[in-house]
Amino acid sequence: GGEVHSTVFYDHAGASFDPTADDEPSACTDFLKVADGLLFLFDPTTNPGFRAILQDVKDPQIEQSLYPPGRQTGLLAEMEVRLRTALNLPPGLKVTTPLAIIIGKSDCWQHLLGPEPLLPIVHKGQLRPDNVAANSARLRELLFRIAPQICVNAEAISSSVCYFAASAFGHSPITFADEQTGAPLLGPQNANLTPRHITDPVLWLLSSQAPQ
């Protein structure tokens, strides 16, 4: 028979990388040590720099803040600390594990990149590494200008970092009230769901393991 391959995705709660949490650090670093690829989802709507630039954008994702500002920068920095400790990495030495930084909710900020759309990374069933690199360079330039700590922390962790944009909804969400508490919630317009670029970082990570 042919070879059998398995792909395992492990979605760890970001709160476990809170440096003030009481959780056992090893519980969330064991998988980092053996992972063949890492994905970090950055929510720009919680970042003070992005929020300042997008303050005039009429979007519920900007008008409401569901998480503490700047929290994700601390989570990424803590991930570096725990990974270095677990692997006993000296200062300046990076892991070679590919790290995808995904800038989420691109439906509300992609206009900051200018009128040119991001390049398609797949053509005729083949991954286009040149387009992946071109998109990454544009996104890194934008991210470094607005939230440089994310770039600095990511590039201190891995020698192979690539930046991606993604939108799970493909459009701005709508606001509705929780039936029990009345609290405002955000949700998709189901008829208009058009996810964008959500598979790009996964394809890049898979290609790093099996380039052919």
How much of the sequence lies in strands comes to: 5-15%
Supply Rg: 18 Å
Number of strands: 7
> What structural category do the secondary elements indicate?
alpha/beta
> Averaged pLDDT, please?
84
Number of helices: 7
Regions with pLDDT < 50 over 5+ consecutive residues? none
- Beginning-to-end CA distance, first to last residue: 20 Å
Element pattern in H and E: HEHHHEEEHHEEEH
What is the approximate shape? globular
Please summarize the sheet with the most strands. 3 strands, parallel
Helix % is: 25-40%
Biggest sheet: strands side by side, in what order?
1-2-5
SSE inventory with pairings:
Layout: H1 30-34, E1 38-42, H2 48-53, H3 60-63, H4 71-87, E2 99-103, E3 122-123, E4 126-127, H5 129-146, H6 148-157, E5 161-165, E6 174-177, E7 184-187, H7 200-209
Parallel strand pairs: 1-2, 2-5
Antiparallel strand pairs: 3-4, 6-7
